Amino acid sequence: MKTIDEMLHLDLLTPEQHRDIGAWIANADSPEEILKMPAALWSAVERASEVMGVDNDLLRPPALDASGI
Length: 69
Hints:
0% strand; 65% helix; mainly alpha
């Protein structure tokens, strides 16, 4: 939920999209249920994720000097 809150704060989601996505996630009983989110909401999340560089962060190798974190 923190990520979609940040998307709202950055004006990458409308308040309505944020509410609907948050409700969908809150009511989902499993990751599989989240994946059944309506296409329009998925598109909004994908666009916002692209702007935020979420995929790039997930694909970045871990820092080798991150010991002690």
